Amino acid sequence: MKNTRVAALALALAPTLAVLAAPRDAAACGSAIRLEVKPLAKPSPVQEIARAEKALESGQALVATQAVIGAFPKVRSTAAGADALATRALRVFALALVRSDGTADERKAGIPGAQEWTRSANLDWAVQALREIDLKRPNDPSLRADLGEALAKVPPGEAEAMTILAGLEKKDLMGSPHAYAALARLREKNGDATGAQAAVKRCEEMTKAWGVCRPVLPSAPKPKPAATRFVTPDGVKV
């Protein structure tokens, strides 16, 4: 009787023992399945530059810099026009420097061993890079607007920037709200408040992104009237 119970118990436990005894590294055995986690694929250069362009238009200059360097670590040595994707990367990197006022460079992006560039050196480099791109495609209004925007950030380039941007505005070919903002700053600096506000209005029609059209120099404060010392018998304040 005892042997019969033992045999019945062994028979009942047989399926469980078989599963426990199965090799652990089997990909599939009955209902036992091993899950394999594959590492995420690294973004392609095309994807990285597209991400950089989107970040730049969203006002995230540093993110744009990081994305460009991820695809083109030596972007500063890129020759404009030699390769379409590399030229796109060069343009985004240069504009990221311009729109960050020369700060969103390799060191700010946390690249180990990156060369130290001053703000003014970064802006000068960006102007030269955008000029080279413009020379490769001289009839592209958007590239002319990029160059004008960059020139407006360096005092020696302000006169050229005004000529470029005002010419594009006159022909209604301004390719960027940032270029309109640059034109507004130049006009405000030159005392043309009416022209500056007109450029700001066009900028606001092109983008709703906060801050793009706002960085205009404040108008010069109006002089305070001289203090009244006394009133004449005729009621005239002097």
Describe what you observe in this structure.
- The protein is an all-alpha fold.
- Among the domains are: 45-116, no CATH class; 139-215.
- It has 9 helices and 2 strands, in the order αββαααααααα.
- It has a two-stranded antiparallel ribbon.
- A hairpin with a 2-residue loop joins β1 (28-29) and β2.
- α2 runs antiparallel to α3 (61-71), α5 (119-136) packs antiparallel against α6 and α7 (158-170) crosses α8.
- The N and C termini lie far apart (130 Å).
Number of strands: 2
DSSP strand (E) fraction?
under 5%
What's the average pLDDT? 84
Number of helices, where a helix is a run of at least 4 consecutive DSSP H or I residues: 9
For the report, how would you describe the main beta sheet?
A: 2 strands, antiparallel
Taken from the alpha-carbon principal axes, the silhouette is globular
Structural class: mainly alpha
Q: Helical proportion?
A: 40-55%
Order of helices and strands: HEEHHHHHHHH
Strand order of the largest sheet: 1-2
Through-space gap between termini = 130 Å
What secondary-structure arrangement, pairings included, does this model have?
Layout: H1 2-21, E1 28-29, E2 32-33, H2 45-57, H3 61-71, H4 84-99, H5 119-136, H6 141-151, H7 158-170, H8 177-189, H9 193-206
Antiparallel strand pairs: 1-2
Helix pairs in contact: 2-3, 2-4, 3-4, 4-5, 5-6, 6-7, 6-8, 7-8, 8-9
